[in-house]
Design the sequence.
């Protein structure tokens, strides 16, 4: 037991003795008041220490929470910055690709570039499906570049029609890559030779010779391009022959089933008769 605690007990005992003995009741009361004051002061100090400790712990916990929150906010900001940078890089890449595509649309191939490209494709064997589609697309672009240089209106219109046909073929082949092998002659010969013919036509037209031979050559090319246009259109149609046959077979089966169920008044479903 501490010295202060012993002194407090003595003060309490003497206060009680003096107060209730009647000998020194006034002094006893003073002792008791002093005892009570010291106890209150001691308790107050204890409460103060207790509450101060609680406040300190609360402040410490709050500080720790603030630090954790700061870490989370910092991490979120870092993630946001990284996402923004990634998004920005993605957008820049898309813009760059679009820019390249736009430049490609506006780019005009020179005669030598077209010839070099034709030689490149002629020398390269066993092209993949994607390479064949790319080849057709590039050659078609070159075809349009040649059309811009030619003066003859009727021939220009025929070339534009051929371009549209090829675009339809490309769209069909991208969805039905199994049919690419069926147009091997078209990609390896028909389209490249068409380009070569038009290159020579453009050269003769620019020379403006007005000789009988040059006129005959140009007339021949104009006639042949019309034939080529019809051939390309048939080539496009050939991509759907299997589909026509499949549909016709399905219709024939349907017709047979309907007739077997008593619907004998239905017209013949032969698809080729309808075409």
Sequence:
């Amino acid at each position: 037991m501490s010295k202060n605690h012993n002194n407090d007990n003595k003060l309490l005992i003497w206060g009680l003795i003096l107060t209730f003995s009647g000998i020194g009741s006034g002094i006893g009361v003073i002792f008791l008041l002093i005892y009570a004051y010291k106890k209150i002061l001691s308790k107050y100090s204890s409460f103060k220490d207790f509450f101060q400790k609680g406040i300190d712990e609360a402040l410490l916990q709050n500080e720790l929470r603030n630090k954790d929150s700061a870490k989370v906010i910092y991490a979120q900001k870092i993630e946001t910055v990284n996402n923004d940078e990634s998004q920005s890089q993605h957008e820049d890449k898309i813009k760059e690709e679009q820019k390249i595509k736009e430049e490609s649309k506006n780019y005009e191939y020179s005669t030598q570039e077209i010839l070099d490209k034709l030689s490149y494709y002629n020398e390269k064997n066993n092209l993949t499906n994607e390479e064949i589609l790319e080849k057709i697309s590039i050659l078609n672009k070159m075809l349009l570049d040649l059309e811009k240089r030619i003066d003859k209106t009727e021939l220009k219109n025929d070339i534009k029609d051929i371009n549209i046909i090829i675009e339809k073929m490309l769209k069909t082949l991208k969805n039905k890559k199994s049919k690419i092998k069926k147009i091997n002659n078209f990609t390896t010969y028909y389209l490249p030779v068409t380009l070569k013919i038009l290159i020579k036509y453009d050269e003769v037209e620019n020379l403006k010779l007005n000789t009988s031979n040059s006129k005959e050559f140009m007339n021949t090319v104009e006639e042949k391009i019309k034939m080529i246009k019809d051939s390309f259109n048939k080539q496009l149609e050939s991509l759907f022959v299997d589909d026509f046959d499949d549909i016709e077979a399905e219709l024939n089966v349907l017709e047979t089933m309907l007739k077997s169920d008593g619907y004998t008044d239905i017209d013949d479903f032969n698809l080729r008769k309808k075409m």
